[in-house]
Amino acid sequence: MDPVDPRSVADRMWQQESRFGRRAEVLFVDRLTPTGTVRIGARVADDRPLDYSPGQFLAIQADVPGVGLQHSPYCMFLPPAADRSFEMLIRVFPEGPLSHYLASAPPGTELAFRGPSGRSMRPKDDDGGAELVMLATGVGISPFHALVLDLLGRGDTRRIRLFWGLRLAEDICLTGELDALAAAYPNFTYEISLSQPPDDWTGLRGRVTESVPPLLETLGGKRFYLSGNGAMAEEMEIALSDMGVDRTLIHQERFFNARHRADPADMEAIVARFVATDIYSPHAQQQAPLLFAIERDIHGRKVGPG
Ligand SMILES: Cc1cc2nc3c(=O)[nH]c(=O)nc-3n(C[C@H](O)[C@H](O)[C@H](O)COP(=O)(O)OP(=O)(O)OC[C@H]3O[C@@H](n4cnc5c(N)ncnc54)[C@H](O)[C@@H]3O)c2cc1C
Q1: Phi/psi of residue 247, each to 5°?
Q2: Beta-strand pair 188-194/204-205
Q3: What's the domain range around 238?
Q4: Separation of 251 CA from ligand 1 center, angstroms?
Q5: If you average pLDDT over residues 223-244, what whole number do you get?
């Protein structure tokens, strides 16, 4: 084995630390659920501006006692603020050193960060009347919350449908904010789907891959957003693109399970739940096979006569 050059180890450590050259200070930590969802407010503590787009994230670094330097990306929960404050929605894992540390950080704790990084989720203006359909699981709702606030605040009138998958009734939070948005903006609606609901639950039931496909009357003219569990994002992306939705209209952010490979039997079951009456869904093809003769394929090429 090659001897370890202590200078290169020190260099690498220095480089890693210096990549997180920005500073922020924790303002508050709110525990939103007994199941480990926290909302953390912070403010930039260096002399540089913080400008970002909804959907982007910061990589936060902290020196966790007994563990050492840890860093992870976290999406912005709010649109950018003039006073350089920002918020994050974080799922705490008792065995996860950084999320646990952040959830216990008292006000004034200094954090190192870099970014913002990642793609903006803002749809392009030339989307015209396209509807936005968002599927989030768990804290995957965070970038959508920033995006919805940003779009509605700019007077965007597109229909926005948010579907939020959670496991238990105890995971539910943020309903005050979401109800207020839905009441103030008729073009925004949201629904929660519980995969392990109590008997008296009146909302959607099952994983979002189960509960949402039967609610989408059409798939065309929509931009899809998928965020949270990488398994959900991958399965929905495959299902939607197999049914003809152009991949450029599917935006995803995988928080974990990023390398998940969809099981073909699961995919068959998910696709079978779609009832959309347009493009290539199996349901639509049964209803009107001739319509598809003049449809275009996912690359925009005509696939039939006409
Ligand atoms: C682009 C991007 C944006 C992200 N934004 C957010 C965010 O806004 N809020 C947030 O809480 N997390 C977000 N994450 C996940 C986050 O970066 C960390 O993975 C998480 O906080 C765990 O870090 P840790 O050090 O506490 O635990 P680790 O030791 O790194 O992870 C503990 C275990 O938890 C799993 N895990 C990580 N996140 C989840 C989750 N949400 N649900 C279930 N299991 C999970 C990991 O795969 C691992 O097995 C994002 C990830 C990416 C790639």
Answers
A1: -60, -25
A2: parallel
A3: 125-294
A4: 19
A5: 95
